[in-house]
Amino acid sequence: MTKRAYNFNAGPAALPLEVLERAQADFVDFRGTGMSIMEMSHRGKVYEEVHNEAQSRLLSLLGNPSGYKVLFLQGGASTQFAMVPMNFLTAGKTGSYVLTGSWASKAEKEARLIGETHIAASSENNKFMSIPDLSSIEIPENAAYLHVTSNETIEGSQYQQYPDTGSVPLIADMSSDILCREFDVNQFDFIYAGAQKNLGPSGVTVVIAREELLAESPKHIPTMLRYSTHAANNSLYNTPPSFSVYMVNEVLKWIEEQGSLAGVEKINREKAGLIYDTIDSSEGFYRGPVEAGSRSIMNITFRLPSEELEKQFIKESEQEGFVGLKGHRSVGGLRASIYNAVPYENVKALADFMNHFQKNHG
Ligand code: PMP
């Protein structure tokens, strides 16, 4: 049997073994065509079926909200940082952003290249170790939208509830927590996510948005950067990342098999609970810097009493087969990314390792 690592990478990240095996079986002869999905026309019936299946499966997992469309784009979530303001930040309007950490800040900074921005709330004073109080969010009258980052992959914080923006469109970067739990899509007008954490491999960026937001885009922006181009052509204006879309479809099937969003949420909460309990019962040996009410169930960040011990932790954990536990270089410390596909057993193994490490070094 293949030996699989205890993979805690932040992204690209662990994929379900069942999906990888399915892809392996499909690899050279997809659905009896005598070729791989990568070798066939994206205009053909076989590929289009997969493409449409992935879209409808995603909407079905979200409860088939009415009036929403799914797009498959390229360029990563980083390209969405620019496309969102290019398409929606029209003259006289401001792009309003909630700053919660590195990714929200990058999104806002990119929007400044396109137009005027506004900070609706920020936890920067708290070193981004919390999600700002929703009641502190101020949305200006001329806001084109309010942009939030549902989960800060680097700092390890996550919204527990979302602001009510009234008639102002709510836009969310859900790259690192999409489909990790049940949520009401109707609260959002526009959602985007790079696939390489909870949805599949890198190469495709998923958009779920209200159709009316996609209907018309400013004519002065390049064709490929207009949402209307992709919406009008079912994301087949140009060649889509066909293999990535196929993989997303398989990951979505796997989520259905886990009991859909309610099923994965239950396991995700148990997994996160294992690590947070280990941190909280360590009598200060492990420290979770993010405020309790803002803790992410996808990216768990933690510190040890010294940087030397953190280095030692990485070294010993690697010897035991754990991968990807080093915190992002910009913040240091440790980070366990426990996306949907990271098995409960692997998270249990990490909790056991943490206890063991504390016994030896505490
Ligand atoms: N937003 C968030 C929350 C992310 O975690 C990432 C990637 N780690 C990005 C945006 C950027 O995504 P990409 O690399 O697909 O451009």
TrEMBL record:
Annotated positions of the N6-(pyridoxal phosphate)lysine modification: 197
Keyword tags: Amino-acid biosynthesis, Aminotransferase, Cytoplasm, Pyridoxal phosphate, Serine biosynthesis, Transferase
Cofactors required: pyridoxal 5'-phosphate
E.C. no: 2.6.1.52
Binding note for cofactor: Binds 1 pyridoxal phosphate per subunit.
List of residues binding pyridoxal 5'-phosphate: 77-78, 103, 153, 173, 196, 238-239
Catalytic activity: O-phospho-L-serine + 2-oxoglutarate = 3-phosphooxypyruvate + L-glutamate; 4-(phosphooxy)-L-threonine + 2-oxoglutarate = (R)-3-hydroxy-2-oxo-4-phosphooxybutanoate + L-glutamate
Family, as annotated: Belongs to the class-V pyridoxal-phosphate-dependent aminotransferase family. SerC subfamily.
Protein name, per record: Phosphoserine aminotransferase
Organism: Paenibacillus cineris
